[in-house]
Amino acid sequence: MPLSASVTVLQGDTAVDIEVRRRAVEVQLGSAHEERAYEALDSALRERTRQVFESEGSGVHVLDDWWPNRTAVVEADEQVVNSATVDALQRLLTNEYAEWSVGIEVYRGLGGERPENLGPVHIYVDAILTTKQLLHLVASDV
Fold first, then answer.
1. Residue 1's pLDDT band (boundaries 50, 70, 90)?
2. Domain spans, the chain
3. Residues ≥6 apart with Cβ < 8 Å to 42
4. Which one of 28, 38, 68, 112 is least enclosed by Cβ atoms within 10 Å?
5. Domain covering 7-138, topology
């Protein structure tokens, strides 16, 4: 059972992006110490995200670039995204990660020469944002 029952289906990629931007808060890092602490948290979340997808191999790419917006970003093939992985990712968002999110850009044929971008799934502790096209990947009862 998902940690959160709140799945919001938006009218397209742009609507998801707008809602993600509305929720986004850029962290102000006032010192080198704060930047190192943020980077350590970010790195640890990305590593935990990799572990969720560990058995999926080439169907997932966790982006190592970071921006201080409390978001880990993943590119994943549609074949490796399902309600169990979304639930596992959402369960990472506790304690020091309660204000963080995981963004998944979903592709068809990610390992191929011309992957097709299917759209976003964005996971928060209290909500999952997606499009109608990807709803079947995040909700087990659809």
1. very low
2. 7-138
3. 66, 72
4. 28
5. GMP Synthetase; Chain A, domain 3 (3.30.300)
Q: Measured between alpha carbons, how far is 104 from 120 in angstroms, rounded to an integer?
A: 6
Report the 10 Å Cβ neighbour count for 128: 26
Helical ranges in the chain per DSSP H: 13-23, 32-52, 83-91, 135-138
CA-derived radius of gyration, the chain: 15
Alpha-carbon span 96 to 92, nearest angstrom: 10
Q: Any idea which residue has 């999952």 for tokens? A: 128
The helices-and-strands tally (H runs, E runs) of the chain is: 4, 6
pLDDT in tens, 83-140: 999 999 999 999 999 999 999 999 998 888 899 999 999 999 999 999 999 998 988 7
Using CA atoms, how far residue 75 sits from 30, 33, 109, in Å, is 30, 30, 11
Phi and psi at residue 101, to the nearest 5°: -150, 165
